[in-house]
Amino acid sequence: MATTDIDLGVVAQGPKGDKGDKGDTGATGAQGAQGPQGKQGIQGPQGIQGPAGKPFSIKKTYATVALLNANGPNDLSEGDFAIIDSTVNDADNAKLFVWTGGKASLVTDMSGAQGVQGPQGKQGVQGAQGPQGVQGEQGATGATGMSGKSYKPYINESDGHWHLTVDDPNDVLTDPFAVTVVTSGSYNGLTTSGYYEIRTNSVTNGPNTETGVLKVINANNKIVTQTMHTVSDNLFIRNEHYGTWTAWRQTTQWS
């Protein structure tokens, strides 16, 4: 895990200011005397309860106003409602009447209002169930995601500033110039990027038998470059491309 400390440059707490002078207390005015409470008035008598009204419902429907007037005395009683149900082309269609005083009185024209909901239709026959489909293959499990960074603010006692430490569990600090010691084998097998100390002349396929430092750069396993710097200050270089090595070439130039 790598930890980074960041100085935010913000002072954690500023200096305390001087205390201000205490203000004068203003004078308090005198409170006036409370007046006398008035007398409560006499409650009036309760009114006579009116007759109970009928709940709204349409007692009868008629095809025409003429039929309503003709049959109303036999069909309807005081306060009953009736409606004309004819056709949309009839001017009296959807007119609502109330039977009062022995005759039909127009209440309102309900044209355009939502009609009365009709009876629910019969449920259709259920179709046959289709064959079950083939189960799909289970997908491959995805790679585990990287852990997130954690941030921890704190006040640094040395400078009084707010600092922030960042812990990254995915960042492993390594020495980019770490050197691996090689005492046997072949130069041809050193294809991983890095630095190698060749300590013996028993390592084969080198430019000569001197000891020194070998630098290897691997470009996606397509091209590998080896640079050998010997103890006598000579410099050699060669490449490997898809398994085939070039000859070592000395690059040191002496004036």
Per-chain topology:
Elements: E1 2-11, E2 58-62, H1 65-75, E3 81-84, E4 95-100, E5 103-109, E6 150-155, E7 161-168, E8 179-182, E9 194-198, E10 212-219, E11 223-230, E12 235-241, E13 244-245, E14 249-250
Parallel strand pairs: 2-3, 8-9
Antiparallel strand pairs: 1-7, 3-4, 4-5, 6-7, 9-10, 10-11, 11-12, 12-13, 12-14
Description:
By secondary structure, the protein is mainly β. The protein is 4% helix and 32% strand. Among the domains are: 58-109; 179-250, no CATH class. It contains 1 helix and 14 strands; from the N terminus they run ββαββββββββββββ. The strands form 3 sheets. Strands 8, 9, 10, 11, 12, 13 and 14 form a 7-stranded mixed beta sheet that branches. The longest helix has 11 residues, at 65-75. The chain is elongated and about 135 Å long. It starts with a strand and ends in a 5-residue tail after the last strand.
What descriptive keywords fit this protein?
4-stranded mixed β-sheet; mainly beta; 14 strands; 7-stranded mixed β-sheet; 255 residues; single chain
Short description:
Among the domains are: 58-109; 179-250, no CATH class.
- The termini sit apart by 49 Å
What's the SSE pattern?
Answer: EEHEEEEEEEEEEEE
Helix content: under 10%
Average pLDDT: 81
**Unreliable residue runs:** none
Question: What is the β-strand count?
Answer: 14
| Rg estimate, integer Å | 52 Å
The main sheet comes to: 7 strands, mixed
Shape: elongated
Strand residues, percent: 25-35%
Protein structure class = mainly beta
- Helix count? 1
